[in-house]
Amino acid sequence: MSPAVSAGAALLLSAAVACAGLLAIRRPPLPDVGTGVLTLAVIGASSRLVSVAVPDRALLLIAAVIAVTGLAVRVVPTAVRRGPQLASAIALTVSGVIVAGDALRAGVAPVRAALPAWATDLDRYPAEIAAVAAPRAARHQRAAADRGRRDRPAAGDPPGVRGGGGSR
Q1: Pick from 134, 116, 3: which is nearest to 57 by CA?
Q2: CA–CA separation, 47 vs 8, rounded Å?
Q3: Would you give per-residue pLDDT tens digits along the chain (168 residues)?
Q4: Is 164 helix (H, G, I), strand (E, B) or coil?
Q5: In angstroms, what CA-CA distances link 44 with 62, 69, 95, 107?
Q6: What does pTM read for this prediction?
C-alpha cells in the first residue's frame, strides 16, 4: 500500500470516528462540526490521492473532487447538511485562492523579468518568463479549475451563501 493511500485511510478513519462521536452527542453545533470535518477529510484524502496519481492534472482533478463533493451534499439528510455545506464552501474558497494566487504570479512574471527597466537584459527576458510562468498544461488546469469554481451549481453552498436564499 502506498503512503498516500495509508495516510488517506488514516485521515478518513479518524474523521469518521470524530464524526460519529459528535453526532452521538446531539448538541448543536457539534453534529455540524463533525459532518463538516468528515467532508473536509474526504476532500483532503481524495485530493492527496489525485495529486499523487496524476501530478500534472492535480489542480483540475481537485476542483472536480470539490465539485462532486458539493453535489453529493444534496444526498445528505437535512438534519446534518449544514456542516458538509460549509466544508465544501470552505474547500471551494481555498481552491479559488490558490487559482487566484497562481494567476497573480503569472501576471506579475513579465514585470519582474523586465525590472529594473534601465538595465533589462532583453536576451534573457524570454528565459525568465518561461522559468516563472507555469507550463502550458498548468495554465489550462487553472483556467478549467477557475471555470469549474465559477460555474459550479450552488447545490452544496449553505442557504445564506446562495444568491436566492434557498431552503435548508
Answers
A1: 134
A2: 9
A3: 789 899 999 999 999 999 999 999 989 999 999 999 999 999 999 999 998 999 888 888 999 999 999 899 989 988 889 999 999 999 999 999 988 988 888 888 888 888 888 887 788 888 877 777 655 545 556 556 666 555 555 555 666 655 544 444
A4: coil
A5: 9, 11, 12, 29
A6: 0.72
Closest CA to 72 of 152, 147, 162: 152
Q: Is 75 exposed, middle or buried (0-12, 13-18, 19+ CB in 10 A)?
A: exposed
d(CA 12, CA 86): 18
For residue 126, the Cα-to-chain-centroid distance in whole angstroms is 32
34 vs 26: CA distance, rounded Å? 10
Query: Cα–chain-centroid distance for residue 114?
Result: 33
Report how far apart, in Å, the C-alpha atoms of 85 and of each of 37, 62, 71, 112, 124 are: 11, 17, 10, 40, 49
